[in-house]
Design goal:
- The protein is of the alpha+beta class and 196 residues long.
- Helix content is 26%, strand content 26%.
- It has one domain: Gcn5-related N-acetyltransferase (GNAT) (Aminopeptidase, 3-Layer(aba) Sandwich), CATH 3.40.630.30.
- It contains 4 helices and 9 strands; from the N terminus they run βββββααβββαβα.
- The strands form 3 sheets. It has a 5-stranded mixed sheet, with helices on both faces.
- 27% of the residues are buried.
Length: 196
Amino acid sequence: MTCGAVVKSGIVYVPCINNGCFSPDSTRRRTSFCDAPQVTPEPAMDPIVVRDVRAGDFDAWLVLWDGYNAFYGRAGPTALPMEITKSTWNRFLDPREPMHALVAERDGELLGLVHIVLHQSTTMMVPTCYLQDLFTSAEAREQGIGRRLIEAVYGRAKLEGAGRVYWHTHETNAVAMRLYDRVAERSGFVMYRKLL
């Protein structure tokens, strides 16, 4: 188990290490919340910890990130440039950024990732949380890790004062949508985009 972690009522509480959270009263500042739970139910004899990424996680995170991007067709000649990947990683570690990366870890091995962006909304007085990326390694699927990551996002969003968490997925991602239908509501909205 992670050093300093405490288990209470099936939840693993992990102290934050040099990473804070978005403060709704200041759009570019983070504050520490070391007593905040990293919401992660602990199965018997198989503890999964969901925590913030740390600078030393880059190599293990990169394997997951590459897997996520490959799933969406960004691999080989269409892979994201390393410049974008490094910039994204640095944003997760920058206390001025409202972006967060959480990882699911078991026995020191990273099994999944989730990335969120906190932003203001025209329809709410409180921040909104966009769950941008969610991925678990092939070996770790069907173990409830995706659900744990989503639940950790819900916990983080509440701590940040957010009033809503939202995300979208590709219409062909049927496996993920079975989980999403159990943990959230379909909004009925269709996403449009145009690259500039």
